[in-house]
From TrEMBL:
Residue ranges annotated for the Beta-hexosaminidase bacterial type N-terminal domain, each copy included: 3-144
Chain segments annotated as coiled-coil in the UniProt record: none
Domain Glycoside hydrolase family 20 catalytic, chain residue ranges per copy: 148-501
Protein name per its UniProtKB record: beta-N-acetylhexosaminidase
Annotated segments matching region Disordered: 1-26
Keyword Hydrolase tagged: yes
Pfam families documented for this protein: Glyco_hydro_20, Glyco_hydro_20b
Length: 541
């Protein structure tokens, strides 16, 4: 069996006696078509952490003693079903990412009808080269995605990463055939994108401390880097709530009207009131700049957890945010709560929660039985307030479907990868990391739990699913190592479900996953070696 993740749709062993190519020794990348020269350069860059000086320079002459990774335009995976969902690059129809890969005696041939398909084949080839032991078994693989949108949300607003670190995450996402990077750029904890119209947002703090953020050049560079890997960047400016940094930069903006039942009960950052002229002008300037800087077709406007706004104020704000994005020629996305401002066939809403999914206790005794809740200081009054505030989420999915909108699946229960790992699956010596990382009130769970998620389990008609997106919010994150420890090995499971449209078989998936630790190690990525997986050593095939 090969160790490719996502598991290819078909895998046919080759007949005959000749062995497959050796993984040790030199290799070369060769674009058989001039249109693939750029793809070949990107594939070369992805291979370098694994091959180093063994990788011949791009353009090297053919040598019979050196196996070749050949990239060619041709037929994709015949007979594969068309992908469902929304094309993240804005194309009217999803891009054909189907491919065929043939391992012969003298190398690997990646062929597809499009450069995107060729690139997906090349990431499969990279996995084979890293996980196959001394030789890559001769075989033919054919594959194609089921979901057109396969995303990962990264949260630099709370846990800032440098542009170079973000690029490492883009590479990781691309290696598992994800094609969207959703950047959560603003929140109460930070504002991470330069806005030329409002420089105060990224100006030094009042004590002179510089703020970490992405300049416009940084942002353009990240988008270009992602595009070379067939990944679309979707920026999120989270409004009208989650706005403490905006309020700090522009003091004096009035609060949104507060519901009577909530006023004075709990501390929260008041959402913005977009009926206020100064607020509306500031938000319009921000979104105009963000839309102008963004190459892709989508801009995410947030709309989640607007604690402290009346229903009327919230609905007005969401409608205004959508309108501003559309005026700038982009398509707005929003979290599921924004469905309460109305939904039409052009809307895409990101489904992340309902009250049952939150797994909240009903009694003080149940709180006492949950160490993570006790450690967070959770009270029964607070839990009851949460249930009250989140009660409308139980109808959000129906609102989206009834209005004709599409659903981007990001259920907190399985796809929020900022969940702590269950102590019983944490290996010796990693207990401190595992205890420190993860959102404090989520029940800690294992890798098998994430792998059990089935995109079809929510009962949404296929033509109404926009796609699948994992998230890794960064409340507990202090470094790139923290981010990748939360992501790995769970991201591979989500990627498998997003690509295939179904939960991977756990027995086969864990056997394949066992060989991916070396891939992450060679790329310098930290991960949590869960005891659920029989991790292969560096010398095992």
């Amino acid at each position: 069996m090969n160790a490719v993740i996502p598991e290819p749709r078909t895998a046919t062993p080759a007949t005959g006696q000749a062995p497959g190519p050796r993984t040790a020794g030199p290799w070369r990348v060769h674009p058989a078509d001039p249109a693939l020269t750029g793809v070949a350069a990107t594939v070369q860059a992805l291979l370098e952490p694994h091959f180093g000086s063994r990788l011949l320079p791009l353009g090297s002459a053919h040598r019979t003693d050196v196996p070749t990774l050949t990239l060619a335009l041709g037929d994709g995976a015949d007979g594969s079903p068309a992908p469902i969902g929304v094309a993240p690059d804005g194309a009217h129809r999803p891009v054909d990412e189907s491919y065929r890969l043939t391992v012969g005696a003298d190398g690997i041939l990646c062929r597809a009808a499009t450069p995107a398909g060729v690139f997906r084949a090349a990431t499969t080839a990279l996995q084979l080269l890293v996980t196959s032991g001394d030789r890559v078994p001769r075989q033919e693989l054919a594959d194609a995605p089921r979901h057109a949108w396969r995303g990962l949300l990264l949260d630099p607003a709370r846990g800032h990463l440098t542009p170079g670190e973000v690029k490492q995450v883009i590479d990781l996402a691309a290696l598992y055939k994800l094609n969207v990077l959703h950047l959560h750029l603003t929140d109460n904890e930070g504002w991470r994108l330069e806005i030329p119209a409002i420089p105060e947002l990224t100006a030094p703090a009042s004590d002179g401390t510089p703020r970490a953020f992405y300049t416009t050049d940084d942002y353009r560079g990240l988008q270009a880097y992602a595009a070379e890997r067939f990944v679309t960047v979707v920026p999120e400016i989270d409004l009208p709530g989650h706005c403490a940094t905006l309020r700090e930069a522009l003091p004096g903006l009035p609060d949104a009207p507060v519901p009577e039942w909530l006023e004075g009960r709990f501390p929260f950052v008041a959402p913005l009131d977009l009926t206020d002229r100064a607020t509306g002008e500031a938000v319009a300037a921000i979104l105009a700049d963000v839309c102008g800087l963004t190459d892709g077709p989508f801009v995410h406007v947030g709309g989640d957890e607007a604690v402290g706004a009346t229903d009327e104020s919230f609905a007005h704000s969401v409608r205004e945010l959508r309108s501003l994005v559309r005026k700038s020629g982009k398509r707005p996305l929003g979290w599921q709560e924004s469905s309460r401002a109305g939904v039409g066939p052009e809307d895409i809403l990101q489904f992340w929660v309902d009250v049952p999914m939150m797994d909240l206790p009903d009694t003080a005794d149940e709180i006492a039985a949950r160490p993570e809740l006790v450690a967070a200081g959770t009270t029964l009054e607070f839990v009851q307030a949460l249930k009250s505030f989140f009660a409308p989420t139980d109808q959000d999915l129906a609102r989206i479907l009834d209005g004709g909108g599409r659903v981007l699946l990001s259920p907190q229960s399985h796809l929020y990868l900022d969940r702590a790992y269950a102590p019983e699956i944490v290996p010796a010596g990693r207990e401190e990391d595992a205890a420190r990382l993860g959102f404090p009130t989520y029940r800690p769970l294992g890798v098998e739990h994430t792998a059990a998620w089935d995109p079809a389990s929510h009962g949404i008609p296929e033509d109404r699913v926009a796609g699948v997106e994992a998230t890794v919010f960064a409340e507990s994150v202090e470094s790139l190592d923290d981010v990748t420890t939360l992501l790995l090995p769970r991201l591979a499971s989500v990627a498998a479900a997003a690509w295939s449209g179904r939960a991977p078989d756990w027995t086969g998936h864990r056997a394949r996953l066992a060989h991916h630790g070396r891939l992450w190690e060679q790329r310098g990525l930290a991960y949590l070696p869960s005891t659920e997986v029989p991790w292969a050593t560096a010398h095992e095939g």
